[in-house]
Write a structure and sequence with these properties.
Keywords: Membrane, Transmembrane, Transmembrane helix. The chain has one domain. Helix content is 73%, strand content 0%. The chain has five helices and no strands.
Length: 125
């Protein structure tokens, strides 16, 4: 394997590992669910992307052609992580999970919980 590929893979793995470590630390350290959503959706997504890019480069070199499995996993992760975080936040709002005093935007929580849908009601045919 050429030395420049080893350097690129090592940098990608180290960067991804650092983001994963920061995301894991944030998940443990942040005090409430609304703040904890930022760690897995931002830092951990970037971290796993770095690891998968390193894997894609390594596998592409071994096979001799572009390995797209890792690219597809990365795209799936980048699409689903924000959707999952949104669903977790909506569930926490629905169950009226109390934030800590430092959480910003608390005055909006009741408004968000009690708002009505803007879609017209469904009319059967």
């Amino acid at each position: 394997m050429p030395f420049y590929l080893e350097i690129i893979i090592c940098v990608s793995l180290l960067t991804g590992g650092a983001f994963l470590l920061i995301g894991s630390y944030g998940l443990v350290r942040l005090p409430d669910i609304y703040m904890r959503l930022h760690s897995p959706t931002k830092a951990s997504t970037l971290g796993i992307t770095g690891v998968l890019v390193a894997s894609m480069i390594f596998q592409s070199h071994l096979k001799g052609f572009l390995s797209i499995q890792e690219l597809l996993i990365t795209l799936f992760l980048l699409i689903t992580a924000p959707v999952a975080a949104n669903m977790i936040a909506k569930t926490a709002l629905h169950f009226r999970t109390k934030p800590i005093d430092k959480t910003q935007g608390q005055e909006l929580m009741e408004t968000i919980r009690d708002r009505k849908s803007t879609k017209p009601p469904h009319t059967p045919r």
